[in-house]
Every structure is written in C-alpha cells, then in structure tokens.
Queue: 4 jobs
Job 1
Amino acid sequence: MTPEEAARRIRENEEEEEEERTNKKEEGAMSIDRKTMKKYANVAELLVHAHVDEHQMFPSWKEEHALLLQTLESCEKIRDSEEEKEKIRSVFDIRWYADLTTRFHLNSFKVEYPVSASTSSSQGDFRAMMEHTLASSIRTGASNGSAIYAYGSMFNHSCAPNVNVAWPERNHLVEFVANENIKQGEQLTIAYIDLNEDWSLNVAKRRAQLEEAYGFVCECPRCVSETQN
C-alpha cells in the first residue's frame, strides 16, 4: 500500500467516525453491530504484519487473548447475551489477536527522550543523558513507552539512515528529521535497531538482530559494503 493510499484510507476512516458520531442516538441501549466491531477490530490493518500460524503463537498470546475475551464478555451489555458474546468471539478471535500483536511489534516506536535537557554531563553527551533517563525511570517508575504512527510505520530500515527520529516536545509528538542532504526521489530510511550500541558496529550482529526481530536480512548499502570489505 502506497503512502497516498494509506492517507486516503485514514481520511475515509476519520470521515466515517465523524458521521457515526453525528448520527449516534444518545437514548436507549444499542445492540453491538458486527460491522462496527469489525471496523474497530481492523484499525491497524494499514500496518505491515507477519502471518503466524496458531502452532507458532507464544503461549502468552493465547493467555492474553483469553483474558481479553473474558473482559469484553463481562461488559454490561454483553454478559447476559450469548448472541453478543458470540459476536465478540467471532470478530476478536485468536487470528485477529496474533495479527494485531505482530503489527504492534513490527511498527511500534520506542519513545525515548531525556528527563531534562540539563541532565547531560556535557553538551552532546547522548549516552550520559540516556543513562540518567534510565536511572530516573527505574527510580520513579516512569516510562517513555511505545507508540505507533501511521506514516512513520512506512519507513524502511537502513543501518545508515538518512532520517532521525526524535520527540523534541518530550511527549507523544514525533519528528522525522533528515540528517543529511537528500536528493529528490531518494528513499527515506530510519533505523529499526539501536545504532548507538557497541554491538551495532558488527554487521553480522546487526543482521542477526534484524532477522530475529523483523524477519529480513539487511541488504542496506552499509551492510553490503561492510560484508564485501
């Protein structure tokens, strides 16, 4: 799916949601509509995912899925209706949960930003800032967390990316900033792995990490060049 098609789908979903809000009646109990459930069950369908057969699923996925169904079926408008429970089970089945989980894994960004701009021992000392952030996170229980961005998930990976990812406002708002001059028509890339780690200097370790986490062997210019040398 191209970025243009994805943007169109996003706009269509937003328009449908606005129309539903406009037409929604506030009075009376409403039965759960299967079409509506399907729509919200498929909110992440624009994102790339990996197909996982049931025998390949982690046991924890099945446990989490069972807890999710139990929670949904305990809702006031559902718990006393076997028909409504069956709708829930048919829409939010284990296949849906596995697809959604892989989408989250493959497309989520680890949101990282320092606790404060003054925590670095010297200007530009990124490692010191991040170490302070980690220590503060452990001490306070705070966590930056993870996030998914519809357009951001369309970037391909490179071990020498031409785009940096940052959260300058220290919130959920992300910025994608070019770190070099980019020619018209040149592909924009980001790094799927932490290139600040010492192990990332080894091409074999980078490729192994990417293959394990994302299912592909990296053939970016940097990896190809370092393999040939």
Note: The first strand starts at residue 109 and ends at 110.
Job 2
Amino acid sequence: MSPFNLTETSSFHTIEITVLSCEDLRINGRSVKKNTCVVVRTDPLNFRETTTDTEGGSYPSWDQKLTLDMSIRETCITLEVHCRTLSVDRIIGSARMPVSDFMGGYFPEGYLSFLSYRLKDPKGFENGIINVSVRLRAPEYLARKKKVILPEDKCSTSRPALALPAMDGKNYDGFDWYSCSKY
C-alpha cells in the first residue's frame, strides 16, 4: 500500500454536484434545439460531464450526480454548458461557482445546497440559468471508521446501547487535537 493516499489526506475534498437543469439557453439569440450537456471542472485536468440531453431544447434537464475530488485551495468550480453537433462542440454558456457558496462558515459537512447561476456566453452576454445541488461528502476514512459500542447502564434495561466512533487519540471528525499547537 502506498504511504500517500489521496482519500486520507486533508488536502482534498470530495464533492457531489447534481446537475439539475438549465433554463432559456440560446445560440446567437435563437433557442437551442437539442444535444446539450454540462461539464463541471474543479481545475483544467479534473472534470466530469453529464450525458447529452437530446429532447429538452432550451430547457434541458439531467438530474445527474457527478462526484469530483477538489483541492482545498480551489476557490471556484466552473460549470460549462455545451451544445454538440456532428462536427462542432460549442460552449453556449459558463458560470463560476464560488466554493464559499456551499462550503465553510455556516455550512456543515454533508449539507445539501441548491444553487442557481446566470450563464454567460463566450462573448460575455447573459445566456440562461443553470440549476445545481452540491454536497460536500465526508472523507471515506471517516465513513469507514469502526464503531465502538458502549454497554448499557446496569441499572436500566430500557435504554439502547450507544454507538460512538473509535477515538484513537482523535476526536470524532478525525482531527488529531494532541498534535495541535497555537504556537
């Protein structure tokens, strides 16, 4: 096993982005007929793509979940709407989704955020809206962490046993408090 495992480092987050739909898509002022898809990028080399919607026209829908790893240094995720024909793959709109819209501050890990963004065409003009939902997944090493079952209180038989994560010198979220120091 490799000593460096990306799933167990704190420098990456796994996010689930569900691409729901788009509204009022146009190419050169005319309604889009068919063959649209969405590409979600966290960086130039890390991206996922939805299937092609062939029937939605200017109001396509996908309801497709995409899972990506994202560096903790990323500040934006790019959403690109493409229109495909036999010979051309054209970006008809893109939006930048700030990471602060769904992570950090008031949002607990695992919180599902529903977000909508205005799309801009390559010339910078407004071109529709994209609707997505985003969830920051708990790291796999925390989800796999074994549970410790504490025995019931001897005086009471009506309470169920309480299950807590194994501590191993760390708190429930895996952060090692003993190695932390302010100075």
Note: Residues 1-9, 146-183 have pLDDT under 50 and may be disordered.
Job 3
Amino acid sequence: MFTVEIESDYVKVVSIDPDGKFDDVEMYLEDDGTVFVRQFSDELNEFQLLAINYKQLLDLLASLDAQDGVYVSKVGGVQGSHLKDV
C-alpha cells in the first residue's frame, strides 16, 4: 500500500508495510531531480535519510529485473532496452 501527495515543488510517496513489521518508507521526489528516501528508526529515535539523484533511483528499479553483472542504464528509448550489460 502506498500514498502519493503532489505538491508544488516535490512529490511525496509513502510506502506502508501492510503487516506492520517495518516502519513507513517516505520518498520525496524534488523538482531539481533529487530523491530523498527516509525511514524512522525506533532504535535511534530519528529518521535515516538517503539522498540520491533520479537516475540512481531508476537504476535501482531497473536492477530488480537484472542478472549478475555490471550495467549501464539509459533513460528513454525502446521499452526493455534500458539496460546494457557491460
């Protein structure tokens, strides 16, 4: 389950664990291409933050369908041709 909130300068996506085993994961997609992913840590009593660019987010998503190897991804083009084995 997830929610999407569209604001004037960012989009916020919250992924909710339906089993309640893990805290919510929040992703902020900023207008400048920065992506922030954060999750609250009960042990540390603070958010753990990951800052990446949009291209890195796309690489992570593309990797879900990849085999072992090193890849160079590209944005756009023919569907299914976004990964090139190096």
Note: The longest helix spans residues 54-63.
Job 4
Amino acid sequence: MNDFNQLINDIDAEVRATGPDAVAQLRAFEAQFTLAADLIALRKASGLSQKQLAKASGVQQADISKIERGIVNATIGTIEKLAQPLGAQVRILRRDLAAAA
C-alpha cells in the first residue's frame, strides 16, 4: 500500500470513529470530488477546453472551473448540461454496481 492509500485509510478510520455525521460529511465530500474528477476526465478525453465546453453546454466557463476544483456543488440541471456535449448521462448507481462498471 502506498502512502496516499494509507492516508485515505487513516482518514476513513478516523471519520468512522467520530460518528455517523462525520461519515455522511465525508461521503458527500467524496461524491463532490468524484464528480469533479469525472468531469475533468471526460472533458479532456473529448479534447475540449473549459471554454469550449462552456460554449457547447451553455454553462459559464468560470462555473465549470469552480465545479472542477470542487468549490461549488453543481445542480443536477447543470451537470446534465455539461454531460450532453460530452456524450455522458447523469445516473445514480449503487456503489457495488458502480465499482463493477
């Protein structure tokens, strides 16, 4: 196990020891940054800059930047607008099914 994975495991253990509210906060944080990482990966795989994605989606480039940096929580409507030109769709998956995909 590398240092980063150990850090993540330590954080997870500390959060679980703190209680269910802390676990819920960590899961929300993870979801926000997973979305940001997925958006960046899809945008780059599509060969689009933030400016190009902004033009194609109708979402301002500054907002795309904030979403990708995890500064704001995007609405489902905004995520859908960003997904369209990337050939993606918005879905909710059970964790075990998402891990298998």
Note: The first helix runs from residue 3 to 18.
